[in-house]
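User: Here's a structure from my thesis project, written as structure tokens. My advisor, Dr. K., wants to see whether a designed sequence matches the one we expressed. Can you design one independently, without my sequence as a hint?
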């Protein structure tokens, strides 16, 4: 680590080829496979994180904890690099600004939701390069550029790294066929699935002898802390209820048979990546751009929901098990369509890491 002023000075003066920034360990899963590929070239990879325990233990990867506040700004404002990779949206629109010593800022998607509705209107404006998951995302980015008179970004048709990781597990057998993963998304609205429905759903499933894995979004522990404390105190005593706070959602996704969510990006990953059934409680849409209709494009999350999920706008909790059965039948009846849709809507399916690695290794 940079434990002396001399080492720190040398680090800042040197221009690094590949630098990655992670807000916390929750984002590591979207980066680690690509980092591992780059590290295999024996070039030094710099991994900056705001979380002390967020480290990638691989040869040629240098982990640097930069914390938050002034320390983080110090590193991000002075570091020099050819390529600076981030999953953070709205670069330049909050305390993290663009650094003139960075040649290219590159965005890596950490969710498969649409560009124009699930993100703020300015989420991608200041990036130089977008690692684009699929055709719909490319269309949306270009339309946003035209609509807002923005300079054109370089759009690289890479695919979605995390979807490819999940594809490797899609034929894995469930250890418990009566396990339901509940994963609410977060949004700016006070009325939402977490507050209005999650307790009813948990209670009903427990009474039906299902195992419940409850995985709130990390932001919920900040925005809805009191609500969660009360909820967990009530249900943590049940043997068939567990709370998942793990940074990586893979274990919960693999262990469960069904997913209940609202508008979380996990639905696309669960359904297209693992071919597992999803029930959407979609009364409260996740809209972070009120002008999303201006680009006149259907969102990928709505497409996937309509084609392959079960949508419940005004749920009757007494019929919850019926929704689960319906969702499973819809998957079983559409496996080939799901495979075709995934191939058509994501670039380089099952080859995104290798494709992207080959593009950057010689740049």
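Assistant: Designed independently from the structure alone:
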């Amino acid at each position: 680590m940079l434990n002396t002023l001399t080492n720190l000075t040398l680090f800042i003066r040197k221009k690094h080829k590949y630098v990655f920034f992670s807000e916390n360990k929750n984002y590591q899963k979207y980066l680690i496979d690509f980092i591992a590929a780059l590290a295999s070239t024996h070039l030094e990879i710099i991994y900056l994180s705001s979380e002390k325990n967020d480290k990638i233990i691989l040869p040629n990867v240098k982990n640097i904890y930069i914390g938050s506040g002034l320390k983080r700004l110090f590193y991000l404002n002075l570091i020099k690099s050819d390529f600076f990779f981030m999953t953070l949206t709205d670069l330049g629109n909050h305390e993290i600004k663009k650094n003139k010593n960075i040649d290219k800022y590159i965005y890596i998607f950490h969710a498969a939701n649409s560009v124009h509705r699930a993100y703020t209107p300015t989420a991608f404006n200041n990036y130089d390069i977008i690692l684009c998951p699929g055709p719909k995302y490319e269309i949306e980015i270009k339309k946003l550029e035209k609509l807002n008179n923005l300079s054109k970004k370089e759009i690289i048709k890479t695919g979605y790294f995390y979807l490819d990781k999940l594809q490797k597990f899609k034929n894995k057998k469930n250890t418990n066929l009566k396990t339901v993963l509940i994963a609410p998304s977060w949004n700016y609205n006070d009325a939402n699935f977490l507050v209005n429905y999650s307790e009813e759903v948990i209670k009903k499933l427990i009474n039906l002898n299902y195992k419940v894995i409850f995985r709130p979004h990390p932001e919920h522990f900040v925005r809805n802390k009191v609500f969660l404390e009360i909820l967990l105190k009530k249900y943590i005593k049940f043997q068939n209820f567990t709370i998942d706070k793990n940074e990586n959602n893979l274990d919960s996704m693999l262990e469960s048979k069904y997913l209940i969510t609202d508008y979380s990006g996990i639905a696309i990953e669960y359904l297209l990546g693992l071919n597992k059934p999803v029930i959407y409680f979609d009364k409260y849409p996740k809209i972070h751009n009120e002008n999303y209709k201006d680009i006149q494009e259907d969102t990928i999350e709505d497409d996937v929901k309509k084609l392959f999920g079960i949508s419940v706008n005004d749920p009757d909790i007494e019929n919850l098990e019926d929704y689960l059965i319906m969702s499973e039948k819809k998957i079983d009846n559409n496996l080939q369509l799901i495979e075709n849709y995934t191939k058509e809507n994501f670039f380089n399916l099952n080859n995104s890491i290798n494709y992207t690695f080959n593009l950057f290794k010689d740049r």
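When you compare it with your expressed construct, this may help: The longest helix spans residues 193-207.
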